[in-house]
Amino acid sequence: MAILKIRRYSRSDGEWIQEFDIPDGDMTVLHAIQIAGEMDDTLAYTQGCRYRYCGLCSVMINDRPRPACLTRFTDSTLVEPLKNLDVIRDLVVDRGFILQFLSGLDFSVNELDLDEFKRLKIPDELFMISRCNDCLCCISTCNNYKGAHEPWRFVKLLNLHLNPFYHPGDIREEREILHRCEDCMKCYCVHGINLGKVIRMLSEIMR
Ligand code: SF4
Ligand code: SF4
Ligand code: FES
After folding, report:
1. Is the dihedral of CA 149, 154, 160, 161 positive or negative?
2. 3-state SS assignment for residue 58
3. Which atom of ligand 2 is found nearest the CA of 199?
4. 96-206 maps to which CATH number?
5. Which of 2, 29, 88, 155 could bridge 71 with an S-S bond, Cβ 3.0-4.6 Å?
C-alpha cells in the first residue's frame, strides 16, 4: 500500500487532509486520485484526456503545480488544488475566467479575400504559444500573484496580438498588469512555453 494525501475543501466543512491507502502498482497521480474517488465518491476532481492534452487534471503535487496524468505516484504524495485560484470544491478550481476572457473579443474578418489570406504570415511564436492547453499550472508558479490570472493571461494576450484576425481594444489594463511583471519573470510553464519570451514580446508590442 502507498498513502495518497488529498487536501479537501467544501463550503460547509472547510478544509481537511484525507489519506487514502492506494494499492501498490506503477501509476500516475491521476490514476491514484481516481482510485481515491472510487473509495470516497464525495471527492471532487477534474480530468479529461488522461494524457497531456486537455489540461484539466492540474493540481499541486508535493507543492508544485503539475498535470496529474503526467506525474508518477509515489508513497506519501500530497495533492492539493492549484494555488492562486478559487477552489470550488476539493481539487476543482474555478476555470470560468477562461471563457470570460475569450467572450467579447473581436475576431471579425472584414473583406479579407482569399489572396490576402494566402499572403498572411503566421509568426513562429504563435506556433510556440499555441501549445498552451490552459492547464493553468503557470498561475500557481507565481509567488507574487496579483489576481489577474497572470502569467496564463500573457500567453493568451500574446496569442491574440500575433493573430492577424484580432482587433485589439483598450489595452491600458493589460499594460498595467504586464508592467508589474517585467522585472520578475520567475514563473514557468510546465509544457515548456518560454514565459520570459512571452512577457518580453508582449511588453514590446504594447510599448
Ligand atoms: S502557459 Fe503552460 S503552464 Fe500556463 S496554462 Fe499554458 S500550458 Fe499551462
Ligand atoms: S513575472 Fe513574476 S509576478 Fe509576473 S506572473 Fe510571473 S512570477 Fe508572477
Ligand atoms: S487529463 Fe488531460 S491533461 Fe491530464
Report:
1. positive
2. strand
3. 1
4. 1.10.1060
5. 29
Of residues 46, 51, 30, the one with CA closest to residue 90: 46
What residue ranges do the domains of the chain occupy? 2-93, 96-206
Q: What is the CATH number of domain 2-93?
A: 3.10.20.30
Ligand 2 centre from 139 Cα, in Å? 9
C-beta 56 within 6 A of ligand 3: yes
Q: Which residue has the cell 506525474?
A: 71
User: Which residue's CA is the nearest one to ligand 2's atom 1?
Assistant: 185
What lines the ligand 1 site, CB under 6 Å? 132-138, 152, 155, 189-191, 193
pLDDT tens for residues 160-198?
888 777 777 666 667 787 888 888 889 999 999 999 999
Residue 49 Cβ inside 6 Å of ligand 3? The answer reads yes
Q: Against a cut of 0.85, is the pTM above it? A: yes
Q: What Rg value do the Cα atoms of the chain yield, rounded?
A: 20
User: pLDDT of 71-90, one tens digit each?
Assistant: 999 999 999 999 999 999 99
